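Why does residue order matter? Because the sequence determines the fold. Keep that principle in mind as you read this record.
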Amino acid sequence: MTATESAVEFTTDPAAAARADLVVEAVPERLETKRRLLARAHADCPPETVFATTTTGLPVTEIAFGSGRTDRTVGLHLFPLGPDREDRAVEVVSTPLTGDAVLADVQELVRDLGRIPVPVADRPGFIGGALTMAYLNNAVAMYERRYASRDSIDTAMTLGCGLPMGPLAQLDAMGLDTARDSLEALYERTGDPRYAPAPTLAHMVTAGLVGVKAGRGFYEYEAGGAARGGEADGLGEPVPARAVRRIGVVGSGTMAVGIAEVCARSGYPTVLVARSELRAKEATAAVERSLERGVRRGKLAPGLLTESMDRLTAGRELQALGTCDLVVEAVAEDIDVKRAVFADLDRVCAPGAVLATSTSSLPVIECAMATRRPEDVIGMHFFNPAPVMRLVEVVHTVLTSKEALGTAHAVAAALGKRAVDCPDRAGFIVNALLFPYLNSAVAMVQEGWATAEHIDTVMAAGQGYPMGPLRLLDVIGLDVSLAIQRTLHGTFRDPALAPARHLERLVEAGHLGRKGGRGLHRHER
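Structure:
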């Protein structure tokens, strides 16, 4: 028995709680169950004992009234699936009746335990639950509609966003019954359709497929909790691919430069075409600087730097792409600009060349229909920085041929990337799940739920995300984020996807995030 285990007393006698200074309930997410348990504890415990509820979706205020001691009941929203770090965040939830001294004592206890107390008001889902449960429910709906496979969804969110686990694996770890109950509680409180549990959740719970604890949920599990192998996140079956010996890249910005570097490093002769000779030279220099950094950090052999630069040529003439077997467009995220590029590529590229767009949210079919060969057009959404991020979303339209699809997957694998396959729909997988979550975080600031710092602390130090949502928006760029959010809203016509007014105001004011020194946070320049 460990020292921790020996310090814990296990009992079936509720009256034993009378000896505690703090009683924490962690029973299922049902209001009457929680109220009844704390009412019993109220009868057993002395008046000075403090009560805490671990609810995610229920109102702490109503639980406090049921407990019999409204001024001494708080919420403690823990994150059992959070990061493996000492300074994990805990949401400390107060009600209008919580005593100041009680709140201060509980926050001090959290600090003594090496955690970060984040004060939040008694609003539906607080910060962590409100943001996370909508995101998880959205992922289930995506899976339910067969837009993407289980593994594609989870792979996309772990590799594309750096999350500690994919949303469907997270639901399995949480327990699908627990997730459904939390969503039901949030929906009953808010009427917000984002919290209406996806029908698949109820179906699986009824069938007893509630996740890790049952041995099966979205995944199947061994006795020790390890997931068994299942579906693949790629194509799942052999698909013919065309030979690719030379790759072209159109553009000279950050993404184009990153893609060109990856291709040259991976052994492909690579042609980069920019708007001018000056931009072409700047792009070449940027690739060389990036490779030099890799050498200095010991991540790249010096010889590979020379070989990669020898494989890369750059200029302004589109005709140079005529010998390329795959061309990746990586120009500005403007559909008219992209359509013009694809019309030019259709003119200069050889028959059978696969033409790919790196768009993150625009319709691939629009690019395809600017050519006379829509069957050869596909989306290859690389993530920034392309030399580091391992994910590529391969996006097929209704006209994309199997050969073009197979070629994109084969090249992604040759570049050392994991490809996930999805149809041509706004946001694809990652942005369709990520940006509604980011937009909701901005709305929280707008509505005065919490400060930007508290929201980011909860999601990074609580949920274990690599970065809080508002800091991530600043890194992406608020103008870029607003454009993606408008695309999602315009495509799906869902009022919940309308860009937060606060986001629009910041962009109108020129506060674009880290690149401008100010966004949802201030940044040193």
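The longest helix spans residues 277-296.
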